[in-house]
Amino acid sequence: MDSYLPAMRDSYQSGPNTIAFPGGQITVAVPGERHARDLRTTPGPLAAMNCNYGNFCATMDGNATQWDFYYCQYYDVASGSPTLAGPGAWINNQTQSRRVRMYGSGGSTNPIYTTPNAFYQDPSANWDPVYGLRTCVAAA
User: Fold this and answer.
1) CA-based angle 88:50:132, to the nearest 5?
2) Is the pLDDT score of 3 beyond 60?
């Protein structure tokens, strides 16, 4: 937890293992557990990644760190807060027919991938080429 807070603008510790940031929350797995879970609301260990309806969720560190993106906006995930890198996974559980557009090093001018409509997931994503996310993209 302490390694995330100094690097994240406008964030604060919102629970024993959660950090709130503008538009979302990071949840860090507790020692001995494989998947991140909010200790305030989930009583026992999770068998898999969990993503609430209406959110886009991303993990890294073997699902030990999970980002939940709540708002319809652009998120800088390479140099802003939060920062995603390396192998991970994602779940698009936004409202029906909404997608997420991922952007490369040119930011919002360089789209590299758009997710299928919700509900959809990728259990083996690579965050290295992704520099930004835009949630709530309308279906084509």
Assistant:
1) 45
2) no
